[in-house]
Design the sequence.
């Protein structure tokens, strides 16, 4: 059903785009436009259909994935083009109210050359604006991430945990848009901070288990003294997650799925809990359930009463589940800080929930939402720079 809805939306958007292009382009090009638009979107439709049908399209047609990605980029450009065209049309209508016979034509004239010229200019401006937006967004996405250093205060923090320094990384999305060089740079910047714990809160890969290999290679040999822990995110469940679980554990990164690990420091105990992402029970592509989703009672089972509880939980919308497990501090990602925020002061992540980035408080319990490091869909970030969060527990 979701595939059918997406297909209908693509057809509708391209129908409007076709009408706009016919207005902007010479008449001799009109006969080819439907065929060109259809061919440009065929790879995207085929790829999405094969993924939903679990037909293994990536192995059967190795060129299909990049072609589908190019189709998706064109779809994004189409949306920008149409939005600017609608704004231009609105501006033109306002202008015609002020100057009723612009260009000297009667109201019932079949063609208004001045309107066509105005919209063509707007279309060219939209192309230039899209290019500028893309270049600026790519620079922000692939430049060095911001390093956020914060002290997190808890009045009842065990003395032995005071000063514990943690690196929180989220949403790396290793895959087509995040390559080995970028991953190695993130590791280098993280290691410079000399954290005692490395904590990964999901979306380690873009969509396929084999994309984990360059991430593991990039972080090989980086061993904070108190360990490395991870949970999976929704993208990690786009395919069979079992190879991801296996390879994380083989490489010394403890994968916490509705379970916990105990860390000793200064005579105090830190319980690192992990909650499974709800996507585990979705089976969106493979139609196979790989787990029950978040189970806070299961994750917190048999923990020492005096352990300070830290929870890794991919989605900030699931904070209540972490609180149910007794988490004093919860670390999440998922939102990318909106990733693309064209409206100043407004995070696009608000469309999926109120907790978009940064620190949130519920009584004496805290949630930190990282903007993450990678990108999804489009290789750009706007007003949402990638982030490495260095968090220090403090008693006070």
Sequence:
């Amino acid at each position: 059903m979701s595939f059918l809805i997406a297909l209908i939306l693509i057809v509708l958007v391209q129908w409007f785009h076709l009408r706009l292009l016919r207005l902007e382009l010479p008449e001799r090009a009109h006969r080819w436009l439907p065929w060109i638009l259809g061919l440009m979107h065929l790879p995207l439709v085929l790829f999405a259909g094969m993924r939903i049908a679990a037909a293994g399209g990536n192995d059967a047609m190795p060129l299909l994935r990049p072609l589908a990605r190019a189709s998706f980029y064109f779809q994004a450009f189409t949306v920008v083009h149409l939005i600017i065209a609608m704004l231009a049309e609105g501006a033109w209508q306002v202008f015609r109210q002020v100057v009723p016979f612009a260009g000297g034509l009667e109201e019932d004239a079949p063609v208004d050359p001045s309107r066509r010229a105005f919209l063509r200019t707007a279309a060219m401006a939209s192309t230039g604006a899209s290019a500028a937006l893309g270049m600026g967004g790519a620079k922000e996405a692939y430049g060095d991430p911001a390093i956020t250093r914060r002290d997190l205060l808890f009045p009842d923090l065990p003395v032995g945990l005071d000063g514990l320094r943690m690196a929180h990384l989220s949403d790396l999305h290793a895959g087509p848009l995040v390559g080995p060089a970028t991953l190695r740079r993130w590791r280098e910047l993280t290691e410079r901070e000399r954290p005692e714990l490395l904590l990964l809160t999901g979306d380690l890969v873009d969509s396929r288990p084999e994309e984990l290999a360059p991430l593991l290679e990039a972080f090989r040999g980086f061993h904070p003294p108190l360990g490395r822990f991870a949970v999976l995110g929704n993208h990690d469940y786009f395919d069979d997650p079992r190879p991801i679980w296996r390879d994380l554990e083989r490489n010394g990164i403890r994968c916490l799925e509705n379970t916990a690990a105990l860390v000793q420091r200064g005579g105090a105990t830190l319980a690192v809990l992990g909650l499974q992402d709800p996507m585990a029970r979705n089976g969106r592509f493979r139609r196979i359930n790989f787990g029950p989703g978040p189970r806070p009672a299961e994750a917190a089972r048999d923990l020492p009463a005096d352990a300070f509880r830290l929870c890794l939980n991919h989605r900030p919308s699931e904070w209540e589940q972490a609180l149910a497990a007794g988490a004093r501090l919860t670390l999440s990602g998922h939102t990318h800080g909106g990733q693309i925020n064209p409206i100043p002061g407004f995070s696009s992540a608000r469309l999926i929930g109120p907790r978009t980035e940064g620190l949130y408080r519920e009584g004496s319990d805290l949630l930190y939402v990282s903007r993450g490091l990678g990108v999804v869909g489009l290789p750009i970030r706007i007003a949402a720079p990638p982030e490495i969060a260095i968090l220090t527990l403090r008693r006070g």
User: Anything to note?
Assistant: The chain has ten helices and twelve strands. The mean pLDDT is 87.
